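Hey, I'm writing a tutorial for new members on how sequence and structure tokens pair up, and I'd like a real worked example in the thread rather than a made-up one. If someone can provide the structure for the chain below, I'll link this post from the tutorial.
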Amino acid sequence: MLLGGSAIAVGGLMRAGVARAGVPVIGPAFDAEYRAVTGLAGGRWHCLVSDLGSGKPETVVEEDADFVIEGASVQKLAVMTALMSEVDAGRVKLSDTTTLDAEMVADGSGLYLNQAAFGDQLTVANLLTTMLQVSDNTAVRLMSRFVSGDQINDTLDRLGFKQTRVTPVPGDSKFYLGYTTPRENNDLLYRLGSGTLLSKESTQAVLRIMTWSSVGYTDGVRRNMSSDERARFATKHGASDDKRHDTGIMFDTAGSPLVVFSFFADQSPDADNYGATNPIVEAHATLGRALLDTYTHLSPLQSFIDPKKIAAGGH
């Protein structure tokens, strides 16, 4: 199942310079592994896995990749994209603040709902961190004070995403998280990892959050890994009703992106179980380990993402 390859290196923009150009990182053997694992797990899968060994995305696994599906918390990547686009344009600052009002607190994932009192002054940087790190739903509501549902959709449309949309609340800046497809999610993550979605500074800020695994979701693709191995994955999960999603980017030890994976599933068995033993989540863990184990050739190129510094909490 092992096929060697090397990764692209990034520095705000894509750089050419692949040690073994055209050699896939994971290759077709992973497709067979994916089919076996997902077949055992059950549910209905919608997936796209892209290999970056040639310097551009090459499809390794594709299953119903244009299926429009409720993105659940994976859609927080769409919110992030619009927000950070506003930051890059100078219309929003990460140091801007808003008040955590009791009426803005949302149920579900996150940490703000567990506070005994409210009234905190929160920065946009804080909301970004909690939204991506612990998938805080209250942070999403508070984000609507800086970027509305209509603004998010306009940004996504401008960037060429035609199916990825939040659902605006009529007459309000608030929104529901809405829908996406595996293909568009894969493209968004590819652009993020290659430095072509956002500015270099915004890319670094987002990936620093998404690769941090000491706090946050590790039941999925990062479960069966060491702390150093986990730092090589930038991930975002989503769970709602019968849906279980896990998406992200796998980097090499030099910080260059190797693989982009978009695992979406609905009709999950044991749908009321949101823990690590849900069959779909178990499959995510197996697939994450398989992604890591199929890659053996390390890129000689150093990118702006330094996993050792990420693990230490900085760049």
